Amino acid sequence: MKVGLFIPCYIDQFYPNVGIATLQLLEKLGCDVSFPLNQTCCGQPMANSGFASLSKSCDKNFVSNFRGFDYIVGPSGSCVLHLKEHLHDEQHPGEAEHIRKHVYELTEFLVDVLKVEKLNASFPYKVGLHNSCHGQRGLHLSSMSERNLPAYSKPQQLLNMVNGLELKMPTRSDECCGFGGTFCVFEEAVSVKMGKDRVADHQQNDVQYITGGDTSCLMHLEGILKRNGSKVKTIHIAEILNSNA
């Protein structure tokens, strides 16, 4: 299985350990992983700001870097959803379509493609799980509480395989953290209040870590935790699933 590793730009710049953990985890699970060195931003920030037409060069570069892979995997639900919904290349439409159909968020890939049933991982801490909106409502990584359907959660399924981990779910398990990409810039006060509410919900469970599949959401929560002087830390789910703490 030939896998192209897609590392979003903000992870590459600010949280490189998330990319390293993703690579190591996929290799542990038997994937032949390659990291295209010329990859850049997927174009999501421009699209979210209403300038999708300006992201065509990002699309072309993405197709150029990731053509020929069986699967493309990235540790970011929001970026993966953007690619699934918006990636196009007029010069290589077939290759762009293949990528749209074969690009996966990490936990989605582990559960749906690799069908992982056991992990050699250990993380002996109390952990709260944050469900990011793009992952939950766009990629359907977990069920939505307002819908009368059987409950499921791919991230939770994987975390339950980690030795020593005590998973604590917040009261409002699918509430937005307030990050929302450019929303946190244009609606700063609302964004911060939403983030504080999320943090307070997790802190009621006396967690030591908050995890999730989107580093952008975790970055938002991390900033609030640090400003409040909290000892609670944030950690990407890839780092937990790859951990032997």
UniProtKB/TrEMBL annotation:
* Domain Cysteine-rich per the UniProt entry, residue ranges: 3-84, 127-221
Q: Which Pfam families does this UniProt record tie to the protein?
A: CCG
The cellular component terms of Gene Ontology attached to this UniProt record, alphabetical and capped at eight, are: cytosol
GO molecular function terms here? oxidoreductase activity
From which domain of life does this come? Answer: Bacteria
Q: What is this protein called?
A: (Fe-S)-binding protein
